[in-house]
Amino acid sequence: MESSILSLLIFLPVLGAVLMLPVAKIYGKDGANYYKWIALVATGLQMMLTVFLYLNFDPNLSIEESPFTVQVNWISHFNIQYFLGIDGLSMPMVLLTAFLSFICIISSWNITKQPLGYFSLFLLLDAGMMGVFLSMDFFLFYIFWEVMLLPMYFLIGMWGGPQRMYAAIKFFLYTLFGSVFMLLAMLALYFYSDPHTFSFITLIETARSIDATIWGYQVKYLIWIALFIGFAIKVPVFPFHTWLPLAHVEAPTAISVILAGVLLKMGTYGLLRISYPLLPGEVVNFAYILALLGVINIIWGAVNAIAQIDMKKMVAYSSVSHMGYVLLGMASVISSSDAGSQAGMNGALMQMFNHGTITAMLFLLVGILYERAHHRWIEYPRNHEDEALAGKPGFGGIGIKVPIYTAFVAMAFFAGLGLPALSGFISEAMCFIGGFSAFRTLTIIGTLGILLNAIYFLRAYQKIFLGPLNEKYSDLKDISKRELVTIIPLAIIILLFGVYPAPLLNMISPAMEGIIDIIRTAL
Questions:
Q1: Is residue 475's pLDDT more than 90?
Q2: Which pLDDT score, from 0 to 100, does residue 415 have?
Q3: What pTM does this model have?
Q4: Does the pLDDT value for residue 79 go beyond 90?
Q5: Region at 386 (left for phi over 0; alpha for psi -120 to 50; beta for the rest)
Q6: How far is it, in rounded angstroms, from Cα 292 to Cα 270?
Q7: Distance between CA atoms of residues 275 and 228, nearest Å
């Protein structure tokens, strides 16, 4: 049973998507409810398996020692393996993926346009995401990385907003561009390593000994650059971030949640899983640039968020800013202080998880308001087609009509700006502790992001919920029971890890210490 759990986590959603086909054959257009329930059961079982996995997970065991590891030959001629494993680096991402996928199916319950296509594609996307976090063979990792691309393209392009096709194509081209560089890096690692292999475990031992040049450049340096471009687009790191706000704005609510909550984390996960342990020398040489890019992300994303009048676009730019904290924490691995390195690396991985839950809550809340009001304007644009609304507040004073919804928005906003006792604070603080130990000036500049975060969150809250009630929204309905089912679990997690982060820290610390030890060999 233990050795099959990881495979089940990947292929349960695939099985759910396949089961929809005979249901469609039998019920045709009347099968919408069946598709929803199949998707809910598939993601629910997947979530239950991840809970079982967590309860039986020992973070002190290496991947080779874990009873959950699966390693069998797949394409023997090229030494390609079906190699799945889990450790403290992937465990929080697996939990996050399963949890958000289940929540997103519930939030998608009102989908009426081509439900068979929507829910089957969502399950395939879920399988691809889970496969990325569990793969320990680069070839397998790359396959799952590409598997995610098509479902996300169609989910944005078919179920998104007015500019959905442009947003989907832009997302597709940016991601595919990065995948080409990742493919080149994967092939270089395979052919220049001895023995030729795609196994991450073996490459950790062999990749650092690669001693070859191409066009006068060290192959290891070129591999690092190629991997960085591939992963930076997904994060996204400035200046590769321009696809993200449009994709978020045009995507349906559940897809925005997955995009910000899980897909962005795959970029930093790829750096930690592949680039850091395989190329420690290049990590050391590139650390300052990584920290600089992180601070640029923090400031640039926050400044752009302040300028937004669309609530969803504001949250999208806040994601760019908050991923900058992850980059800063990751760069602190080269700190001369062991405590600083550990704080920064642990904070980076904690921020990946915590930001996933916080931004999921934010996008769900924005989607709830959009369903009722049919717009997301903090202020109407000055060139709005209705001249009477141009430049006017989009809402105003609705807190009195939707008090429960308003309270949850306040919690999500305060978590986003890093209020103590909420999960965003502890992970951001640890990233700054690590960053300050290695890059003092850059980190001081980066802390301005906290102030900028407060500006755009509090400004939006004041304009939407406070002040005199806009009579246009006097009949606005408060949050429903189904919507509470999606919001309350996220709120509990945000509060729990803000007050008591030990379970998350205990889970990730051994894996982060292992990566730090590898980097120390190159210092």
A1: no
A2: 93
A3: 0.92
A4: no
A5: beta
A6: 19
A7: 8
